[in-house]
Amino acid sequence: MNKLKFGAFLAPHHPIGEHPTLQLQSDLELVALMDKLGYDEFWCGEHHSTGWEVIASPELFLAAAAERTHRIRLGTGVISLPYHHPFMVAQRLVQLDHQSNGRVIFGSGPGALPSDAHTMGLDPMLLRDRQDEAMGVIRRLLSGGDRFTYECDWFTLRDAKLQLLPVQEHLEFAVASMVSPSGMTLAGKHEAGVLSIGSMSEAGIQALPLQWSFAEESAQKHGTSVDRSNWRLLINFHIAETREAAREQAKHGLFRHNNDYNVGTLSAGVGQIFKTPDEAVDVMAFSENSTSVIGTPDDLVNRIRELYDICGGFGTVIGFVHDWSSREHQKQSWDLVARYVIPELNGMLDSYRESNKYVIENRDTWVRAGQAIQSKIMENERAKAAMEGPQDEGKVALKPHAAQDIGENKK
Questions:
Q1: Residue pLDDT, tens place only, 203-261
Q2: Which of 32, 77, 178, 251 has its CB 3.0 to 4.6 Å from that of 281, i.e. a possible disulfide?
Q3: How many CA atoms lie within 13 A of 89 on its CB side?
């Protein structure tokens, strides 16, 4: 397994009922924590309805996040391109790249929520083609070059050129992908990375073995290239020190998230409604076809390895940010992943284990070191007498293996 990067995806999915300002502040605190813990990427979405997804501008949110962080890369996950004039998207990306000192990843999509498109009077059948068209124009704008004019049925550019280019010479593009080949095909055409959101569903996992081939075929068709290191898989997880603790911490929030949002809102009543929190966690995390990991760091390590084998390789694990548990338990979950999952999967502990094993298996080699210390003791009359002499009441004489016992309390 190649070295993996790790990050988080914030839609966000916040249950209705909490103060929205405090929710946003909590989200920003999470970005700062992940930067401190050494995560590689943080993604933020764009949504305009449902009541659960309250961030309308990923660029605004990530600009605030940039002020609170130092090294973590900041991805728009995603900008819904059919909702925006491409020139304005390019302008905002450039400004954000400067404000974050070159840490932006440009993720785009056609628009995830039908309710958003309906509000703007957009035909869903047009959205993917418009995303494709906008990506090509934005790529041309960000690369600099001569002024150009572009006209189509939904926007116009006249003598267009950006007055400021990004800090990054090659600002990375990425596209969202669900289950169909469209996202992967677009990635191949535009040399973009992929944010596989479909990997959180049973159908999406079943589609994974074929997904990358669509990107490669599209790249070959358009004379471009794609790299698996830019493929990001989203995973739903909640991690605690024991499975029992993880279940208890996450089951009530998972129950509400599935019943109220996934089925009650997003799927318009289509899907499984759970009767109890225990049923929800059993089906979604502990059944044969479960798509979520609720358990220990070892459970998450095993799932990531399994997905890696199914895919044939990818570059980044992206954890989906949710409100299944309390804020404190959410932070502990991300902390456990940083402390145990990331180093385990990236081989950071291999040399430690080898060194420990070598010392244990070669104990005879270290005998001479003890003999050397003992010989020096024997050369000194007072030290020798202290070691060999009779004990005074309440005191203990040094034993022949005193070199190994130094620092320990002996009775």
A1: 888 889 999 999 999 999 999 999 999 999 999 999 999 999 999 999 999 999 999 99
A2: 251
A3: 28
Is pTM, for the whole model, over 0.85?
A: yes
User: What is d(CA 393, CA 409) in angstroms, rounded to the nearest whole number?
Assistant: 16
What gap in Å lies between CA 20 and CA 56, rounded to an integer? 13
Strands 156-160 vs 148-151: parallel, antiparallel or unpaired: antiparallel
Distance CA 54, CA 137 (A): 28
Instruction: List alpha helices for 120-181, DSSP H.
Output: 127-142
Residue 177: partners with Cβ closer than 8 Å, 6 or more residues away: 183, 184, 187, 194, 195, 196, 197, 198, 211
Q: Are 9 and 234 in contact (CB under 8 A)?
A: yes
Domains of the chain, first to last: 5-352 (3.20.20.30), 365-405 (no CATH)
Dump the DSSP string for 265-307. Answer: IITTT-SPPPSSHHHHHHHHHSSTT--EEEE-HHHHHHHHHHH
37-92: pLDDT as tens digits:
999 999 999 999 999 999 999 999 999 999 999 999 999 999 999 999 999 999 99
Closest of 114, 233, 251 to residue 183, by C-alpha: 233
E strand or H helix that includes residue 237:
strand 231-239
228, 315 contact by CB (below 8 A): yes
* Residue in 185, 262, 173 with CA at minimum distance from that of residue 219: 185
At 160, which helix (H) or strand (E)?
A: strand 156-160
